[in-house]
Specification:
The chain is mostly helical and 175 residues long. The protein is built from eight helices and three strands; from the N terminus they run H-E-E-E-H-H-H-H-H-H-H. It has a three-stranded antiparallel β-sheet with strand order 1-2-3, with no helix packed on it. The longest helix has 22 residues.
Length: 175
C-alpha cells in the first residue's frame, strides 16, 4: 500500500517555496498552496505574521507548526481524497497525488479513471481503486503521463500566458 510521507516529499520538491507570480492564477503561493484557491487555509495567518520579520520568506522553513499544517493540508485535501492509502503501487499513488496538487483533484481523478477504463466521475472510490490496482503500473504511468501532458497543452491553448510554465509541467509529468 502507498504511503503519504514519501509522496508528500516528492510533491513539495516540485512545489518549491514562497512565490507571488502575477501570471499565476493562484496568486500568492507557499509550497503549492495558492491563496486564491485556499484562502481559508490556517497557514496564511502564520505566513502573514512572518512577512514583517527579517529573513522572509526563508524564515517560513523554520516554522515547525507551519510545516505541520502544510502536511495536514495535503493529506486531508488531496491524499485522503484519492483514497491513496489503498493504491498498491507507490509510484502510481505519487503520480495521481502530484497531478492532483498541480491540476486539481477532480482532473487528476478523471484522467486516472480514463486510463484504467473506470467510470470517469472525478471521484476515486472503491471501484476506481480496484481498477487502478488491477492495471499494470508501468502502463498506467506511461498513459497517465501522456494524459497529463495533453492537459497542460490544452491549458496553454486556452491561456497563452501559462506557456512559461509548460517546460516545468512537462518535466514534472515525466518524473
Amino acid at each position: 500500500m502507498a504511503e503519504f510521507l514519501p509522496a508528500l516529499q516528492k510533491v513539495l520538491a516540485h512545489e518549491g517555496e514562497y512565490v507571488n507570480d502575477p501570471d499565476d492564477l493562484g496568486g500568492e503561493t507557499y509550497k503549492g498552496i495558492a491563496r486564491n484557491r485556499h484562502s481559508k487555509w490556517s497557514g496564511w495567518v502564520r505566513i502573514d505574521m512572518s512577512k514583517g520579520q527579517s529573513g522572509f520568506p526563508a524564515n517560513l522553513e523554520k516554522d515547525v507548526k507551519l510545516q505541520e499544517e502544510i502536511a495536514l493540508f495535503y493529506q486531508v485535501n488531496f491524499w485522503d481524497t484519492f483514497n491513496a492509502d489503498n493504491i498498491n503501487n507507490q509510484l502510481v499513488a505519487n503520480s495521481i497525488f502530484d497531478f492532483g496538487v498541480n491540476a486539481g483533484v477532480q482532473m487528476s481523478a478523471l484522467l486516472a479513471q480514463i486510463v484504467v477504463d473506470a467510470t470517469a466521475d472525478g471521484v476515486i472510490g472503491p471501484q476506481s481503486i480496484e481498477k487502478i490496482n488491477a492495471f499494470d503500473p508501468d502502463h498506467f504511468l506511461a498513459a497517465f503521463t501522456v494524459a497529463k501532458i495533453a492537459r497542460y497543452v490544452s491549458i496553454i491553448k486556452k491561456r497563452p500566458t501559462s506557456r512559461k510554465y509548460l517546460y516545468g509541467w512537462v518535466c514534472r509529468a515525466l518524473e
